[in-house]
Amino acid sequence: MLSRTHDLGAFSSLLIVAAAYPQSHLGLNTIIVASIANIVGSLLPDADQASNRLWDLLPGGNFLGKIFRNLFLSHRTLSHSLLGGYVIYQAVSWLLPQLFNSNFVNSQVIIYSLMIGYISHLALDGLTEEGIPLLFPFPWKFGFPAIRSWRIKTGHWFENWIIFPGFVLFILWLFSVNWPLYKSFL
Ligand SMILES: [Zn+2]
User: Fold this and answer.
1) For residue range 159-171, what is the model confidence (pLDDT) as tens digits?
2) Which of 72, 66, 70 is nearest to 46 (CA)?
3) Cα(130) to centroid of ligand 1, in Å?
4) What is the 8 CA–ligand 1 centroid distance (Å)?
5) pLDDT of residue 67
6) What is the pLDDT of residues 107-133, one digit of tens each?
7) How far away, in angstroms, is 182 Cα from ligand 1 center?
8) Could you say which of 45, 47, 160, 167 has the lowest number of CB atoms within 10 Å?
9) In whole angstroms, what is the distance from residue 59 CA to residue 160 CA?
10) Ligand 1 center from residue 81 Cα (angstroms)
């Protein structure tokens, strides 16, 4: 999947979870940081790719990207597995409360938002032909539907003309249906 599809998939997932588990009076700070964390989470699994936009956001990103890529081996290995998800969860659970003042931002919400982005990335990649190595270091790749040729080809017409616009419409629909609820988060 392309990173813009992952962004929208992550944000849709965040909106669904927000509607299912409403949190009133989160405050604007937490909502903004949670939205950014959600997008960062959705880009993290592909941070092992040279073209990843995450690295463009950071000064010296190329250098950091190289280190990160070496850590995460080749594309779609550790970063696209349950083990990788666990490592990321532990890392952000430690890091984010250090970064944000708890008087201004609810760290727990930020951590969940980031992980929702991360998990949505794995779910979407599971729909592509390549599948994902969920049980890495075991080499088996998982995907849905089970028959490979029925799955999506990254960057092809189905992703560009059906899935991507589908997410845009879905997000608009979620906002229109849940607007009073989302407004109560402020
Ligand atoms: Zn991926």
Assistant:
1) 999 999 999 999 9
2) 72
3) 10
4) 14
5) 67
6) 999 999 999 999 999 999 999 999 999
7) 29
8) 160
9) 30
10) 10
